[in-house]
Amino acid sequence: MHRFLRHFNLFFLVFNSFIFANTLEIKDFFGTHIVKLPIKKLAIIGTYLELPAMFNIWDKVIALDKYSFDIDINQCFFKLNENKIYKMDSNTLGNIEKLLQIKPDLIISSIRNAQNIIFGNKIGLNFLSFQTHDIDAVKKQIFIFASLFDKIPKAKIIIQEMDSIFQLIEKQTSKITQKKKAIFVFNKPNVVSGKISVVSDMLNHAFVDNIGSRYITHDRSEIPIEKIVKENPDIIFIWWLSHYDTESILKIPALQSVKAIKTKQVYKMPSFDGTGPRVALMSLFVAMNAYPQNFKNINIQKTIRDFYLRIYGYYICN
After folding, report:
1. Which residue among 71, 181, 200, 212 is the one 20 to 30 A from 192 at the CA level?
2. CA dihedral 306, 309, 314, 318 (to 10 degrees)
3. Percent of the chain at pLDDT exceeding 70
4. What is the pLDDT of residues 99-132, one digit of tens each?
C-alpha cells in the first residue's frame, strides 16, 4: 500500500504540472482533455456510480445513471433529493439532447457507446471516459477524480481503507492450500466473468479460483452450460443487477449436479459498484462466504462499520 501511495505521489507531481490557473489536463480512453475547474454541474453515467457519496459532492451532481438509484449508499441521499437529479440510461449513454439541455460541466462515463461519446465531445459536451480492467485502475482513477474536486487527502484515506480490507482477506486466507472454485454470473446463468475485469480481479483478491477465466479472456461472455457443469464450481455468485436470485439459480435443471447447487452455496452480491471503494467489500463478501471458518474470529460488523465511517462518514443510512 505504501508503495502504491509513493507511486501516486510521484504521479501527481507530474500530473499537477499540467494545472494552469483553473484547468486540468487529463488523459482518458479517448485521448487528452482540458477540464475547466471548478466543476459545478456533474453527470455520471455507466461507471463510478458511488463517486458522489465517496467524495460527498452531491451538490455538484445534476444527472446520474439510473442504476445509481438502486445502490444503498446513494439512497441515503436520494430519500431527500431524488427529484433534483436526472436519471440517465447507461445503455445509450444517456440522451444526448437531454445532456445538451442540462449542460453539465463534465460527464464521467464508461466507454460504452463510443460513437455517442465521440459525437458528444464534438458538439460541445465534455466527457471523461474510462475503461477499468482491474482494482489498480480503480485506485488510479479515484485519484484522478480526487484531483478534479480537490479531494486528494480523502483519496489517500480511501485507498488505505481499501487496502486494509484486502490485507485482512490475505491474512485470513494465507493458510488455505486449495482455492474454492467459483463462478460469477450476470444476466444469464451462463454469462460469466472472464479473465480481465474488475470482477475477475475482485475474485482474485478474495482468493477464489474464477473458473470463467479459463474460457473468457475479456470481462464477461456466454459459455456453454455444459462447461459450468464440467468445472463443477464450489460456489456461485450472482451480479447484483441480475434478475436472477439465489432460488432461481438453485432450481436450474441443467445445474443440479453442480456442487454449489447441491450444497446451496449460491449468493447474490450486495448492491455495490465495482468501480469504487466498496469493491474491497465485494472481495470480503466473496471470501467470507467461500471460507467462513477463516473469518469466524473476526468482528466483521465492526470492520465494515469502520470502513463506512472513515470513507463516507456514516454507516449505510445512519
Report:
1. 71
2. 20
3. 90
4. 999 999 999 999 988 888 999 999 999 999 999 9
The torsion of the CA quartet 99, 130, 29, 60, rounded to 10 degrees, works out to 40
How far is it, in rounded angstroms, from Cα 18 to Cα 36?
Answer: 12
Spatial separation of the C-alpha atoms in residues 11 and 14, rounded to whole Å: 5
CA separation for the pair 283, 263 (Å, rounded):
21
Helix axis angle for 198-205 and 135-148, nearest 10°, is 110
- The mean pLDDT value for 193-207 works out to 96
Sequence-distant (≥ 6) Cβ neighbours of residue 7 within 8 angstroms:
none
Segments making up each domain of the chain, as ranges = 2-131, 165-311
Q: At what angle do helices 152-172 and 2-15 cross, to 10 degrees?
A: 150
pLDDT at residue 235 tops 70: yes
Residues contacting residue 211 through CB under 8 Å, at least 6 positions apart: 181, 182, 183, 192, 228, 231, 233
Q: What is the number of residues in the chain?
A: 318
- DSSP per-residue string spanning 61-109: EEEEEGGGGG-HHHHHHHHHHGGGSEEE-TTTTS-HHHHHHH--SEEEE
User: Among 69, 110, 76, which Cα is nearest to 93's?
Assistant: 110
Q: Is 210 helix (H, G, I), strand (E, B) or coil?
A: strand
Q: Which CATH architecture has domain 165-311?
A: 3-Layer(aba) Sandwich (3.40)
Peptide bond into 38 cis (omega under 30): yes
Better-scored residue on pLDDT, 188 or 2: 188
2-131 placed in CATH 3.40.50.1980 = yes
For residues 239 and 244, give the distance between their C-alpha atoms in angstroms, rounded to a whole number. 9
